[in-house]
Amino acid sequence: MRILVDENVPRDTVVWLRTTGHDVLLASEIKAGADDIEWAVRAEQEQRVLLTSDKDFGELVFRDRLTTHGIDLLRLDQLPVPDILARLQPVWSAV
Question: Which CATH code fits 2-94?
Answer without folding.
Answer: 3.40.50
